[in-house]
Known about the structure:
Blueprint: E1 7-8, E2 12-17, E3 25-32, E4 37-45, H1 52-67, E5 76-82, E6 92-98, E7 103-104, H2 105-110, H3 117-135, E8 141-142, E9 151-153, E10 159-161, E11 168-169, H4 189-192, H5 198-214, E12 223-224, E13 227-228, H6 238-247, H7 259-268, E14 298-301, E15 306-310, H8 315-319, H9 325-348, H10 350-371, E16 375-380, E17 384-391, E18 394-402, E19 406-414, E20 417-424, E21 428-435, H11 437-451
Antiparallel strand pairs: 1-2, 2-3, 3-4, 4-6, 5-6, 7-9, 8-11, 9-10, 12-13, 14-15, 15-16, 16-17, 17-18, 19-20, 20-21
Helix pairs in contact: 3-5, 3-7, 9-10
Amino acid sequence: MLNSGQIIQDRYQLQSQCGRTATGRQTWLAIDRQTQEKVIIKLLAFSPQMAWEELKLFEREAQVLQALNHPRIPHYRDYFSLDQSVGGGLPWFGLVQDYIPGSSLQDLLDQGHRFTESQVKKIAKDILKILIYLHELSPPVLHRDIKPSNLILDDSEQIYLVDFGAVQAQASVTGVTFTVVGTSGYAPLEQFWGRAVAASDLYALGATLIHLLTNTFPADLPQKEARIHFQDRISLNPNFVHWIEQITEISLEKRLQTSREALELLKAGKIRPQKNQNMTPQRALIKKLNQPFYSTINVDYTPEHLKIYLPPKGFGKLFNLEIGCSHLLILYFGFGFFLSICIPMFLSNPLLFWFLCSLLFVSGFLWIFFLTDEKTWVEFDHTQFRILRKSRGIQYRLLSASLSDIIGVFMEKKRSKYEIVIRTTSQTYRIGEMFVAEECAWLTQKIQDWLYPH
């Protein structure tokens, strides 16, 4: 267990943990005892539950940071590993980088700070200059997780881009990759399909600017004509509104393609002329995905409706149940309570004891019997969508919402598997929790193609 004041690597003295991090990850503010300077240490625990993709991303972040040299990106300092005796029974990997004094844009939003149009324009220009540096490297470097919490504003109003945990050197991409990273609400659709490009960072920048201007999380804003609709929330220069719209186009073909072009247009206060909508692009930037050969999902796709049938997963459904600490505590105390009642009962009335045990066994068997046969139907028409679940011929759950309420359809990772998330203006709907990446990406794209046929 790592604690404040602890010295690791005979060099770094931990001061305090920074922010909220995922399980198995810690970020510490520390003092480098050799230089007496503050540093940031990111730590990743190597545990049996950790997916290999997490370690690969962590190592990639260290490798990429080591090669970067930009005044608005934290400099790489060190990379190390801690053995089990130091890490509280688990080995840890550590990445050390410069400490950037200041507040994240997310912290400022949480504190009620309202950004003016001129402030947001300056932030946009500064971030675009960083992206020009990253995207024009050879090979290009994609950040893939631009959002308010990863942008630090210091006392002199300088902006810094931090947290390269989702970074990718584009030369390593061949075809479609399925290490899905990014944050829902900021990452564009092609990124959730594993096909991030330089314009994907521009979309995330645009979504971030919308959040700063409206003080509203982008996924909570409505969509109109496949765009985040924010214009009615704030009074802005029309050219600036159109510029933001051009970097947040859901279609890659319509979106501004390079950071340099985006910066030049923003400085000039101009917008790019609209392309001829009747022209067929020479090359689709998003590869059309095919249904994997092993997939048993049935799709009925017509202009009038989209019907999806997800067959039962059998005992795989049972083994995939997510059991957290709260569930284990309930089971522990429930079992203890059961024993405290049943042991005296067994001694005084064995017949009643065996009856209760049989009842418990039968109820558990019936739960497994129905769970392993759960089938799901998802249906879209031009007015609404419905999610219907049945098991052993019994319908037990029906969810529905208006099609006009849909904000977006995303692909999210849940442990080692994936699920499809349909976010509406009032609720979040989840479809499946046992998809592999390729199957989930294909079905997500299928739904998006039907919702946005153009």
